[in-house]
Fold:
Amino acid sequence: MNRAERLNAVLDLLAETGQLEVDELVSKLDVSAATARRDLDALASQQLLTRTRGGAVGQSVAYDLPIRYKREQHAPEKLRIAQAASALVPRGAVVGLCGGTTSTAVATVLGSRPDLMEPSPHPNLTVVTNAINIAAQLVMRPQIKTVVTGGVVHARSYELVGPYSDVVLEKITMDIAFIGVNGIDPLIGATVHDEGEASVNSLMARRATRAVVVADSSKIGRKAFATLGGPKVLNTLITDAGITAEQRAAFADAGFEVIVA
Structure:
């Protein structure tokens, strides 16, 4: 594998366990100890991990997440969904990210991509978000330009909601927006519990050339209180292999593109 692929492999291994030793990288990646150390040093210089004696640990962040982020359900599925979402994002793109655990996973994967961490006189990626936890996570990545909408913080989700958010979003455009939801139905479309979050997230989707729902399969068929829109607004669904053939056909018939991670 080339260096970029190897650095991605290192980050994938670190995501699984939270800690790596040089000897482990030598064994799993079939590289020399010197190469393993150089790779860890390179990722540490990009603030993607923290070096330790003989290895590395995952990079910590200077904020504390709500309890629902800590006790996250369906974490492996959300990681695969996040990786599939990242694959849709070219270097230089403008990306919208709403709040929620799956969108946070997308931010983590984007913030760990070596190609986006390379030194550059211009941002390698621009992220527009109404989630203050995502902004705090990405602000440590100097190669990523982070734009935060205004608004009032929703204590449950760390999302900024209200008319101040609308003022910012109405003045920008995005290439792609990733929207986390509480429910997704082929006829009703995407739904969330809070009407304030629904309003901001729906506007974010409309300001993007492509709007993508990121939702694990447990959300399929669920209906929450407030609607965000159907396939005319959110035209792509990224989910996991738990989606059934019947569900996938129903979404396709309704006009959704379905990507199974």
